[in-house]
Amino acid sequence: MEFGWTSEQKTLFDSIERFARKSLGQELIERDRAAEFDLAGWRECGKFGIQGLPVPEDYGGLGLDAVTTVGALERLGYACADNGLVFSLNAHLWTAAMPLVAFGTEEQKQRYLPGLCSGELIGGNAMSEPDTGSDSYALRTSATRQGDRYVLNGSKIWVTNGPVADLLVVFATVDRAQGARGITAFLVDKHTPGMTVGRKLDKMGLRTSPMAELFFENCEVPEQNRLGREGAGTSLFTHSMSWERGCILASAVGSMQRLLETCVQHARQRKQFGQSIGKFQSVANKVVDMKLRLETARQLLYHGAWLRSLGKSALMEASMAKLYLSESWVQTCLDALQLHGAAGYMTEFQIERELRDALASRIYSGTNEIQRTLIASLLGL
Ligand SMILES: Cc1cc2nc3c(=O)[nH]c(=O)nc-3n(C[C@H](O)[C@H](O)[C@H](O)COP(=O)(O)OP(=O)(O)OC[C@H]3O[C@@H](n4cnc5c(N)ncnc54)[C@H](O)[C@@H]3O)c2cc1C
To answer: How far apart (Å, rounded) are the C-alpha atoms in residues 244 and 96?
Structure first.
């Protein structure tokens, strides 16, 4: 087994760190409070190439393999404390750009991918509905074929990037009676008549990542905007969820590294009872557990990405990574907060925001209860 990075990979990761420190995460406390998306930062990420990390070079991406991509996102998460911006970038990558790479026609790829990679276009994905979350294939949003177009009716909720997205991958059913086999994906441009973006949803964490509801009322989508075959929406969704679950928390590994370093420094400097608090075993144990979780999370992340680089679907590994990394991130945030005492609870120390951001990771991309169900079924239970 080879665990080292090449010098090209190291150079890339170092340049991502320099870029993120210089161009991202400014005035984060204020932007988090105001729930403000960093559009300028998004555009800078596009110029750097973040939105196209794993997208083939022919379409404007950097064409990186999965292992290098997760390494790059890990470093981005380490150097950019704006987890909301990083989350928006992930949603864009895994649920808009990569499904297009895998399922788009040549014409669709040429039309959208260069803009999605350059940061000019923002992508998002609309699967969840008010009545269907975990039971995602029980969709109500319908797509009725009329000649060379489909007419969409229904509504979507919890759409990350919804308020700012130029392109949405929308899932609808062409026949509810067919269940999962009726689900079909569509590329819907912003301003398509009949599609309305609802109010921006205010949330506990990831506040700099905008979210909205979408409404479809006789929204006509031309046939050439169907993504994949009619009825292929389920396999498309499974494919993008496998990528997403395997990679979306790479940046959380970076965040855990950042928190570990902050905690080591604090535990060494903060003195109580005449000595550094790090000398108290119950404090040191928290830091040790952070390190252990970080390294275990990293191995799971890299292993899944390595399988993906070999062309394997790595479904089990993706679910395990999503489950373990999210729980680890939350626990690391909780421990970091406790270790900082009252300061940890205060906004200015920026740990309470990390905790609020991390909590969402147990819910998005399929809740952790659903990941356990998937792993159990893959184990044959
Ligand atoms: C920050 C964030 C961003 C998101 N972005 C998007 C997006 O861009 N696009 C999009 O389409 N959706 C998005 N979502 C929605 C997300 O995919 C759903 O929240 C998720 O699938 C769960 O659905 P739900 O919220 O309806 O919960 P429910 O399905 O109602 O679940 C409620 C509880 O019941 C449990 N439960 C449900 N069914 C089972 C079962 N069979 N076995 C065991 N437990 C079960 C769940 O685990 C959960 O604890 C986002 C969510 C969040 C928090």
So the answer is: 11
* Neighbour tally for 27: CB within 10 Å: 12
- Return the ligand 1 atom nearest residue 136 CA: 21
Is 61 within 8 Å of 113 (Cβ atoms)?
yes
Closest CA to 236 of 99, 137, 357, 42: 99
Q: 161 CA distance to ligand 1 centroid (A)? A: 17
3-state secondary structure of 139: coil
Name the helix (H) or strand (E) containing 92: helix 83-92
CA end-to-end span of the chain, whole Å? 31
d(CA 322, CA 262): 24
Write the Ramachandran bin of 5: left for phi over 0, alpha for psi from -120 to 50, otherwise beta. beta
Q: Which of 74, 244, 317, 352 is catalytic?
A: 244
Instruction: Please tell me what DSSP assigns to residue 129.
Output: B
Rounded-to-integer distance, Cα 33 and Cα 310, Å = 43
String of DSSP letters for 273-321: TTEEGGGSHHHHHHHHHHHHHHHHHHHHHHHHHHHHHTT---HHHHHHH
Nearest to 158 by CA among 193, 202, 196: 202
Residue 2: what pLDDT? 78
In this prediction, residue 125 carries a pLDDT of: 96
Q: Whose CA is nearest to atom 44 of ligand 1?
A: 369
| Burial call 166-203: b when 16+ CB within 10 Å, e when fewer | bbbbbbbbbeeeeebbbbbbbbbeeebeebebeeebee
Residue 1 in this model has a pLDDT that exceeds 80: no
In the Cβ-directed half-sphere of 10, how many Cα atoms lie within 13 Å? 5
pLDDT for res 3: 83
Residues pairing with 10 in the sheet: none
Q: What is the pLDDT of residues 250-272, one digit of tens each?
A: 999 999 999 999 999 999 999 99
State pTM to two decimals: 0.97
- Work out the burial of residue 9: count CB atoms within 10 Å of its CB; fewer than 13 is exposed, 13-18 middle, 19 or more buried: middle
Mean model confidence pLDDT for the chain: 97
Model pLDDT, residue 367: 98
Both structure tokens of 26: 């400014």
Please say if 106 is a catalytic residue.
no
φ, ψ of residue 187 to 5 degrees: the values are -95, 115
